[in-house]
Structures are given as C-alpha cells and as structure tokens.
Amino acid sequence: MISENGLKVLERRYLAKNEEGKLIETPEGLFKRVSSFIASADKIYEPDKDISELEKKFYDIMYNLDFLPNSPTLMNAGRELGQLSACFVLPVEDSMEGIFDAIKHAAIIHKSGGGTGFSFSRLRSKGSSVNSTGGVASGPISFMKVFNSATEAVKQGGVRRGANMGILRVDHPDILEFIQCKKNDKEITNFNISVGITEKFMEAVEKDEEYELIEPHTKKVKGKLKAREVFDLIVDMAWNNGEPGIIFLDRMNRDNVVPELGEIESTNPCGEQPLLPFESCNLGSINLVNCIKDNGIKKEIDFDKLGDLVDTAVHFLDNVIDVNKYPLEKIDEMTKKTRKIGLGVMGFADMLINLGIPYDSEDAIETAESVMSFINERSKQASAKLAELRGAFPAFEKSIYANKSMKLRNATTTTIAPTGTISIIAGVSSGIEPLFAVSFIRNVMDNDELPEVNPLFEKVAKERGFYSVELMRKIAKMGSVRHIEEIPEDVRRVFATAHDIDPIWHIRMQAMFQKYTDNAVSKTVNFRKEATREDVREVYMLAYKLGCKGVTIYRDGSRESQVLNIGAVN
Ligand code: UDP
C-alpha cells in the first residue's frame, strides 16, 4: 500500500495529467504503463513471445513496492519524453565549442529528469593563453558558473530539478579555487562538487610531501603544492558546509570494466555511478523491508524472495536500455556498448530494525555483507542468463571479463542509489542510510513540508505500551531516542538515528556495501554539529583505506537550508 506521502509525491510529478493539470492516471495506471512498456523490449529478441506474464511480473513487483526503478523510468516510460535513465556523464572538452556543447546536452538531459556529471579537469587553467584569440582563459570554475546558470534556467520547465556533479582533479592548477568555490553555500547551487583524488596525491599526504600541478592542455608541470595543506583545505571546507566531497579516481578506474573505451573521470550527481564520457545508466532498487520472513521463532531475511526479485529486476533494467529514448545519438551508442545497469537496495535501515539489529553493530555490518554479496552474485547470474539469449554486452571481448567463461549481458549490475524519491513512494528508509530521526519534518521538492513519525517506532511503542503523545513530542524535539529513559533499552539501541551513529560506523557500512557493488555507493556520513575537523579527516582516511570510491560528509547545521531537520516539532 502506498502511503499518503508516497501518493503526494506521485501526484505531483509522476502521474499523467491533462492540459488543465488534472490527474488522468492512478498509481495502478502508472505501474501498468511502465510494466507493459518495459516488458515490450522482450519482443526485440523473441518477436512471437507472449509477454503478458512478464508484464504481470513487472507490475506486481512495483505495485507491491518490492522494487522500483529510478524516477525517470516511472515518469517517462510509455510517454512521449521516453527518457528513462537517472545518470549521465558528459565530457567537457577544452574548447568553446566543447564547453557549450556540454551545456546544451546537459539542458536536454535535465529536461527529462536525468542528472549529469562532468569532469572539468581537461579545461586549461585560469590565466593560461588562448591561441585563437591571443587572450587568456578564464578557467574551469568560471565555466562551471555558466553551467550552473543554464541549469537554473531549465529547472522550472523540467520534470524535476536538474542536478550536476562537478569534478576537478586534485592536480589541476586551479584546484585551490575549486575547493573553495562553494564556501558560500548560495553559490553554484545546482552542483555537487568533488575533488578527484589520485593515489599519488594520497601518498604525498601520508609522507607530507609536495605534489605537482599539471596544466591539462600542455601536460607541463605548472607548480607544486604541499599535499597536506590541500588535504586540510578540503577537510576544512567539507567541515564548513559539506562541500567538496572527494572521489578516488584510481580506485574507480580499477573497476573500469572496459578501459579501452575510455577513462572514468566523473560520476553522476549523487556519486553512486561512475561512468565513461557519454555513458548513461538506469538504476533500480529492491525494497529490503519486503524481504523478511518469520520462521516461527524469529524474523530472518527471505533469500528466496530476494533472489527472485533480483532476477526480475535485472531483466527489467536490461530491457530499459532497449526501450529508452536517449537524448543524444552518442549516448545511445555508448550506453549500448556496455549496457550498464545499477541494481541496489532501499529500506536497509528499516530491515535492520525489523530484525532487531542496531545499525552501529558488527551484526549490521555482517547483514550488509550477506545481503549485498548475495544480490551482487545473483545479479551476475541473471545477467549471464540474459546473455545466453541476447548476447553479451557488445564491448565484452574488450572487457576485463573477456577471458572468463561466463558471458555477461551487462558490464556492471550493481549500484547503491540514494533512492531519495522512490523510497518515499515505497515508504521506507532511503538506500542504505540509517534513519535520520524517529520524528522529523522532511522538505521535499518545492519546499513542501511532510511531517513524519517513523511508523515502525510508533508500532513498537504501542505494542510495548510506552506510547504517549507527550513522548512522541519529546522525541521529535530531541531527534534521538537513545537518551530517553522511559523507552526500553533495546528499543533505544535499535532505533539508532544518523547522528547517534558514530561516523566510523557510517563509513564501515559504506565500505561493506562497496565491497559487493560494481559501481559506487551513495552514502552521507553524518556528523554532529560539535564534530571537529580532525573527526572529518579521520573518516576521509578510513574511507580511502577501506576501499570506498568516494566520501560525502555533512555536519549538522552547517548549511542554511537542510533537506531534513531534526528537532522540528510537527
Ligand atoms: N537525480 C537528479 N535530480 C534529482 C534527483 C536525482 O538528476 O532531483 C539523479 C541523480 O543522477 C541521482 C540519481 O538521479 O544520482 C538517483 O537519485 P535517487 O536515487 O535519489 O532518485 P529517485 O529515483 O529516488 O528519484
């Protein structure tokens, strides 16, 4: 059953409306539209196949909220726009034509609900010469501002807010300006920014050495900086307001399945999907709350159901690639060479609560390992099964899998998405994040306020007889239940919220999911307001050591407008 909040979200942007803005589609209608359109891709491979059974299967997993594809698929499948992917990476070449082509392409993608990532690392630095005009270059950050304004203008007309990721390599001569470009959080608001960190740089940080800045268009050394000073500046800015994040470029490229096709230099806006230039990827997430069974003694993970869902979801996501309307010919071509899909999860924290496992415990880390290793392995088997009929992804022979006996239909199968909107539709905790608060006010899209008390908590409180209106108020105000004595100890442990959880557990959880995820993991490491720069630094170092592909942190209260607010009473 879709919750009231879920319905509100669907009504606002997802369900079809007529010219007067009146709804002409029900949620059932939406799932019908999406399932029959996505199932129709099977006809490409088996023209005579009766796809009604498959349509029903796709319909059921969405209707039961067991699985949801990313928002653009829900919004656009079977409709005129027809663009179904959330994630794109576009190249930005070091020329006027290249830069403005990228802006145009991004605008087209934003219009359809997709997000774009860019590396600005190829742009020559500020003040370097421009041969054709004899003038001087204005540098990557000034162009980022142009991208930002273009996004701002397109924003209102699109199906949702356009989102961008901007990356600059740590060895770019303009890196210091880049690190500080969002110091004022009213600047470049349509971008998340991340510094592209190299292993060479991290070694220099560890040894307290200088490292070289390289001018991208000449490849000449333009200067040197002390690695620790740069690292400390990144930490300081992130502590200040959460930006920039960092991504580990070498780590990402070690997982580049087809290095011959190009180098990974950027991710999509929320960081979970590293892609080659012009590649796109569609995502989908399994609702883990619906994969629990009671064996008569206790609750446990229902791996049979989970396995079936993975099989159907992989089939679904592979079909999306074929019926997607790509915004550019070049994107169509690149996407179909690797056929990347990103299957992930939502409701992980809710699942832990149902199983009685605190998020910040070894038990939780082990649960993450058993769930994600299972999904990753099973999704490869499902992809291999599709390859038997449909063939391996076209770049397979050039890929790192070429000599393996198992052919794969998809170069990657797993990604942990933020599930910002689809988790609201499903009514569960987002992605692999812990609960933000047991009671809170969530500002989603267009500043609408949706007050919420965690339904699992309300249920437990009523069952165990400690529910009272005053107590719920108190919790809303404090944001956490950990220190409220009238609540039983075990309940306090299990209903851990993001700020109760030590940042080290956040990063350990991210690292465990990353271990079994082909692409990357969307995760925000939440810090309390009192956290120090040293705390942030420690988490960055740990993320690097544990093999994460990037880190995003956020210290409570460090931005004027936060998406989620603790302590806000309904
Ligand atoms: N995204 C976007 N604009 C938004 C939200 C998301 O472009 O307002 C893109 C972005 O690439 C992000 C991806 O969609 O990384 C997945 O985000 P999420 O899982 O939150 O999307 P959902 O499917 O839940 O809407």
Topology:
Elements: H1 4-14, H2 27-39, H3 42-45, H4 52-63, E1 67-69, H5 71-76, E2 87-90, H6 96-111, E3 115-119, H7 140-155, E4 164-169, H8 175-179, E5 191-197, H9 199-207, E6 210-214, E7 221-226, H10 227-241, E8 245-248, H11 249-254, E9 266-267, E10 274-275, E11 280-287, E12 292-294, E13 299-301, H12 303-323, H13 329-338, E14 341-346, H14 348-355, H15 362-390, H16 422-426, E15 439-444, E16 448-453, H17 455-463, H18 469-478, H19 489-494, H20 503-515, E17 524-527, H21 533-545, E18 550-555, E19 564-565
Parallel strand pairs: 2-3, 3-4, 4-5, 5-8, 11-14, 17-18
Antiparallel strand pairs: 1-11, 2-11, 6-7, 8-18, 9-10, 12-13, 15-16, 15-19
Helix pairs in contact: 2-4, 6-7, 10-21, 12-15, 15-20, 20-21
The protein binds uridine-5'-diphosphate.
Describe the structure using short key phrases:
570 residues, 3 domains, binds uridine-5'-diphosphate, 3-stranded antiparallel β-sheet, alpha/beta, Anaerobic Ribonucleotide-triphosphate Reductase Large Chain, 10-stranded mixed β-sheet, globular
Bound molecules: uridine-5'-diphosphate
Major beta-sheet overview: 10 strands, mixed
Oligomer: single chain
Helix/strand class: alpha/beta
How would the global form be characterised?
Answer: globular
CATH-scheme architecture of the largest domain:
Alpha-Beta Barrel
Kindly report the average pLDDT value.
Answer: 93
Number of helices: 21
Number of beta strands: 19
Characterization of this structure:
49% of the residues are buried. This protein is 42% helix and 15% strand. Helix 12 packs across helix 15 (362-390). It has helices at 4-14, 27-39, 42-45, 52-63, 71-76, 96-111, 140-155, 175-179, 199-207, 227-241, 249-254, 303-323, 329-338, 348-355, 362-390, 422-426, 455-463, 469-478, 489-494, 503-515, 533-545; strands at residues 67-69, 87-90, 115-119, 164-169, 191-197, 210-214, 221-226, 245-248, 266-267, 274-275, 280-287, 292-294, 299-301, 341-346, 439-444, 448-453, 524-527, 550-555, 564-565. With 570 residues, the protein is an alpha/beta fold. Strands 1, 2, 3, 4, 5, 8, 11, 14, 17 and 18 form a ten-stranded mixed β-sheet that branches. Strands 16-15-19 form a three-stranded antiparallel β-sheet. A two-stranded antiparallel sheet has the order 6-7. The chain has three domains: 31-80 and 274-422, Anaerobic Ribonucleotide-triphosphate Reductase Large Chain, CATH 3.20.70; 87-267, Alpha-Beta Barrel (Anaerobic Ribonucleotide-triphosphate Reductase Large Chain); 434-501 and 521-565, no CATH class. It starts with a helix and ends in a 5-residue tail after the last strand. Uridine-5'-diphosphate is lined by residues 70-71, 86-87, 114-115, 160-161, 163, 268-270, 272, 417-422.
